[in-house]
Design brief:
DUF2292; 1 helix; about 50 residues; alpha+beta; YezD family protein; 2 strands
Length: about 50
């Protein structure tokens, strides 16, 4: 049986993988409270050439 913390980490990692496939320039921030990822923030920069 997988504990809740491990399940939370696996879900967060899957979300980060998906975001990494869509961001060209930017950052991903994980917000953690009590050892649980509670929020994922994505900042993307659009570069005009």
């Amino acid at each position: 049986m997988v504990d809740k913390r491990t399940e939370n980490v696996n879900l967060a990692l899957e979300n980060v993988r998906q975001i990494l496939n869509t961001v060209n320039h930017g950052s991903i921030t994980l917000i953690v409270q009590n050892s649980y990822v509670v929020q994922i923030e994505k900042k993307e920069k659009i570069r005009l050439r």
